[in-house]
């Protein structure tokens, strides 16, 4: 009788372990990345859309966007990821610190100069900010690809379109404007040159204060 009970218990243990492994594998499978949308957003097999917490990469159609997407794809596409400090944002996406096999994905995007901080709170915010400054100072990624400080590439299109990074208001600066020489064009966030005031205004920019 004891032998029979022992066999039954062993059988139950095997079944239990098999089921646990099955459910664990299934759950992990739902955390596999099936699509990378851009340099900071991707989708899991579960259907969940996730954005890298603390990182703002260029949109795909802007300067640095394709490079950022390619980098994120190389890190996580078709791989299982772990999400830490996850919470939802207003658009329904999950924001998270993302790890792939122990590698901190958010930091890797920053390390290559393919994102800037969004300064949202997390346990890794200081690390992300420090990595961003290192990439910027080394002129990696968008800091060499997308920053224009010299003469306009087209002498017929010299009006600078600038976006205030604290308010996101759009202003344009004519060559005679007070701060024209100090304005740096960040193409990765949608800044650029215009050939006429009408063109700038059509794009949503208004004349900056200090302009004649």
Automatic annotation (TrEMBL):
* PROSITE patterns the UniProt entry points to: TNASE_3
Instruction: Identify one Pfam family in the record.
Output: SNase
Q: Does the keyword Magnesium apply?
A: no
Q: GO terms for molecular function, please?
A: endonuclease activity; hydrolase activity
Keywords in alphabetical order? Endonuclease, Hydrolase, Nuclease
Q: Where is the TNase-like domain?
A: 27-145
Please give an example of a GO cellular component term from this record: cytoplasm
PANTHER family cross-referenced by the UniProt entry: EBNA2 BINDING PROTEIN P100, SERINE_THREONINE-PROTEIN KINASE 31
Q: What is this protein called?
A: TNase-like domain-containing protein
- Annotated organism of origin: Candidatus Roizmanbacteria bacterium CG_4_10_14_3_um_filter_33_21
Classification from the root reads:
Bacteria, Candidatus Roizmaniibacteriota
């Amino acid at each position: 009788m004891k032998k029979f009970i022992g066999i039954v218990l062993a059988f139950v243990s095997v079944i239990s372990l098999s089921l646990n492994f099955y459910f664990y594998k299934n759950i992990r499978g739902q955390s596999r990345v099936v699509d990378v949308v851009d340099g900071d957003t991707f989708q899991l097999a579960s259907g969940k859309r996730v954005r890298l917490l603390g990182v703002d990469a260029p949109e795909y159609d802007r300067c640095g966007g394709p490079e950022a997407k390619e980098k994120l794809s190389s890190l996580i596409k078709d791989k299982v990821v772990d999400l830490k400090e996850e919470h939802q944002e207003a658009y329904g996406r999950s924001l998270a610190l993302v790890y792939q096999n122990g590698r901190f994905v958010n930091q890797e995007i920053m390390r290559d100069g393919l994102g800037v901080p969004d300064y949202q709170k997390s346990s890794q915010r200081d690390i992300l900010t420090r990595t961003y400054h290192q990439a910027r100072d080394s002129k990696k990624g968008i800091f060499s690809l997308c920053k224009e400080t010299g003469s306009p590439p087209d002498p017929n299109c010299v009006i600078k379109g600038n976006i205030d990074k604290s308010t996101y208001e759009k202003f344009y600066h004519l060559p005679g404007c007070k701060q024209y020489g100090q304005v740096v064009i960040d193409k990765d966030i949608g800044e650029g040159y215009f050939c006429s005031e009408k063109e700038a205004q059509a794009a949503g920019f208004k004349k900056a204060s200090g302009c004649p």
